């Protein structure tokens, strides 16, 4: 038999593995990313619409925040997931610009598509994009204006940045009220660390948005309480605060505990011993001079009444998150025993009070000496509204934080994008070859931001973009879309400001994501592995009547 002329089949990949490769694969990936971009486009800008998302477990979310929407859209396409990742990264790094970064990345891919279809290598496009983004970032750094926040009007500058971050959000109508709250919140933090986790946000349904409160300290919901709680004082000035991890309650006996006693007096002695144990603890707490006792564990009715008689406020079952923030704010330390508590273990604050907010009662610690922390109490008609207010405030707080750290700002409303676009167009005319076309395509892609802002506002995008190009060619570097007069205007003079970091991060992330998609020209999808024993015959039973082998 002659096998000489037969080529053996080489199987490298498991059967059922899906492979697709080549230029068609890149274009297919780009189309998937453009589909994600299309979903987000209507939400951009002050007149962008919100999206209502219903997840699998019927939970509804109304949002305008790019990162939130993409997180909830269950994107399964492997290439389109990169857009979800860059918007999350933008949210974590800068806080704002999550929609812009996704739209920009989608547009850069859209601009690259015709070149790929004409047969230009994806590496040439990537090289051109890298050159363009380095020029763009250099131009932003050249344009950016340094603002000195330590001066008199420093607070006003931060408020303007926060207001720009809020323009596209649900709370825009109440921006003046929330802007003050955001800036207060960030300025209450430690200047060196600026840890935004120290800003607690509590959501209380009911009431109007304007009834939201800023607490310069810590606030938490009233804990479960026993009889005698209402006799306790609810307001103190400069109290001593003791934080415990101790249960102050009479222990219930185990179900099957058996105690044999001969006389009634013996039984009384056991009961008295139990009472004496808890009373000793309570007296030790009283001797510390504390006015407020907080504990992670329950404080029972005996202890509650004991404290009420001695004008001490107590709260048991405080969540560890809240208790840790109280400790950081008022000082002291959590004690796991009531013996040997020294004065340095107690904290203090200027005012403590319990007050009614909506249908809930809240414990507020204000004017905390150690405090580099604060709490925002948010109100609103529906839970979805409060959740969106919280997301909007998170963006604004992050922007104020970045402005404090970086101090460089640029104008928003599409002004910066148009100026960079003009700069890149001018540069592309000075070079020859394919790179000229690619840098020009990058410049064209940047115009998607002002164009989409106009489309969402119902303005004539073509006319306004032409006017913007003309204004920028005459040297009006801060001209962008002005929604108040439905035309173009100097956005820097109108105080539509954003930290330069937002734009730099946006351009870098969008370009990196685009280059990542362009560099992938093959996808291998492994079929889900079946369980180890699937497909095997069941072991043969050796029942009655089967001979032994």
From TrEMBL:
InterPro entries: Chap_CCT_eta, Chaperone_TCP-1, Chaperonin_TCP-1_CS, Cpn60/GroEL/TCP-1, GroEL-like_apical_dom_sf, GROEL-like_equatorial_sf, TCP-1-like_intermed_sf, TCP-1_chaperonin. GO terms for cellular component: chaperonin-containing T-complex. It is found in: Cytoplasm. Residues 528-549 are annotated as: Disordered. Keywords: ATP-binding, Chaperone, Cytoplasm, Nucleotide-binding. GO terms for molecular function: ATP binding; ATP hydrolysis activity; ATP-dependent protein folding chaperone; unfolded protein binding. It comes from the Eukaryota. Pfam families: Cpn60_TCP1. Its main location: cytoplasm. Heterooligomeric complex of about 850 to 900 kDa that forms two stacked rings, 12 to 16 nm in diameter. Heterooligomeric complex that forms two stacked rings. Belongs to the TCP-1 chaperonin family. Molecular chaperone; assists the folding of proteins upon ATP hydrolysis. Known to play a role, in vitro, in the folding of actin and tubulin. In yeast may play a role in mitotic spindle formation. This is T-complex protein 1 subunit eta. The lineage of its organism: Eukaryota, Fungi, Dikarya, Ascomycota, Saccharomycotina.
